[in-house]
Amino acid sequence: MLRGIGETPVMPLGLSYLDDFSQEENTALYLACIQTVGIIGPMFGFLLGSFCARLYVDIGAVDLDVIAINHKDSRWVGAWWLGFLVTGAVMLLAGIPFWFLPKSLPKQESKNSKKAVNGTQGEQGPFLPQEDFLPSLKRLFSDSVYILIICTSLVAVSGFIGMITFKPKFMEQTYGQSSSKAIFMIGIMNLPAVALGIITGGFVMKRFKLSILGAARVSVTTSLVSFCLLLTQYFLQCRNAQVAGLTVSYEGLPEVSYEPETLLAQCNTECSCSLKHWDPVCASNGITYANPCLAGCQTATGFGKDMVFHNCTCIGEVPILPTNMSATLGQCSRSEDCDKMFKFYMAISVLGAFVSACGATPGYIVLLRHVDVKTQIENVFNHFLAVVQIGGIPPPIYFGALIDQACLKWGTKRCGGRGACRLYDTDAFRSRFLGLIYGLYALSYVLWALLYKRLVQRHKKKAAEPEAVNQEGNDDSSKNTQDETGQEPEKETNI
């Protein structure tokens, strides 16, 4: 709440101020620079998060040698609290320069014309509009173009927030990556591509001096191209992790039923194993078992992460001659084919992020330029509020609820009750996760088409108004001439 109070004035008032007191041809490039720097922050944030995720949550309080899991395990809890201390201190330092901003800045002179701002040439006048807020707000929400912009932004941002929230989990479950590596890859590859795309979009706007219709065309085109790239991600898949009793049978065949009872087999029925306990071991046959007991292991050697289980009777159920009947702690790694598929996925993801970001600055120019200057601040503020609150808060909730339906194995809290999901059906995860993103983005493109149509109609209407005024002026002039002379004016003959 405190962050919201402090941050809310910065973007709406700051961007509107920038648009008012800079050259029109430079606004797009300035916006792109601000948004690009804004992406660099999350990039370092993801890198910091990746580092913290590799550190155990109780730094210095627990001997890591006695911990039997590592950062690649789904039960690992990283030092989530450390990032808040670092970023909190940095945010305090970032607020200091705001105290030294001048009360007013000189207006940049346009190359084509020199306009006075609020009656004062070259200086800033009253920045906040003098008009009452409610009438201004009413006029904004009676504008069909503005309503379409709000709806389009809401739907598109909902899809983006849902995607970026669960993308690390998607990479972890589908391609077998650790959570720290998934966060690191997003920070070091995706976000720089977004920053480069934003600055590229701003440069295109400045270089070709695009109008509001040109900006809308660029934004729509980049959105459609990025959507096509996003569609290809559905086919970049890996098969489910082989977990006995969940995704494959104890004989190594694909499992068709995911009921808890399938975790029991003839090889472990007499062991009185707990079906709720998740402590996966990787057998020499390449299959993961939910815990050593369900693998039928009878003895163990070693300590902590180096513990090895022997005489695991269930390993022998697979019709593949294993080298031994032993298992080690942790889930089995994915195949090499899955690693190659992950590289293709990252390449498509980075390219799609770049193309999509190229339309960000043109889209913001459409938001700024379609309304009157007097309502510009309310325009940006309402857009910012709607996108952050309505478009940013609900998506993680319904995305998470839909993804949880693909869970195969739930963890159990120490005091009872359902914990976090330990294993997902990757096919169902991919279908639900990407399917919801596809639906939201497709709806946003339909709204973009309606928005572009309304912009074209408004552009034609404004273009026709000067012609009508000129024609009316010519008619009045002819009428006055006739009234003064009593005769119609002579018509000139073009030679």
Please sum up the structure shown:
This protein is mostly helical.
In DSSP terms (H or I, runs of 4 or more residues), the helix count works out at 13
What distance separates the N and C termini? 74 Å
Specify the structural class: mainly alpha
* Topology as a string of helices (H) and strands (E): HHHHHHHHEEEEEHHHHEEH
Q: Tell the overall outline.
A: elongated
Please provide the count of β strands.
Answer: 7
The residue-averaged pLDDT reads 81
Spatial order of the strands in the main sheet? 2-1-5-4-3
Query: Helicity, in percent?
Result: 55-70%
Low-confidence runs = 113-128, 488-495
Strand content: 5-15%
The major beta sheet can be summarized as: 5 strands, antiparallel
Query: Mind telling me the C-alpha Rg?
Result: 31 Å
GO molecular function, one term: sodium-independent organic anion transmembrane transporter activity
Transmembrane segments: 28-57, 78-100, 145-166, 182-204, 344-365, 433-452
Domain Kazal-like: 261-316
Protein name: Solute carrier organic anion transporter family member
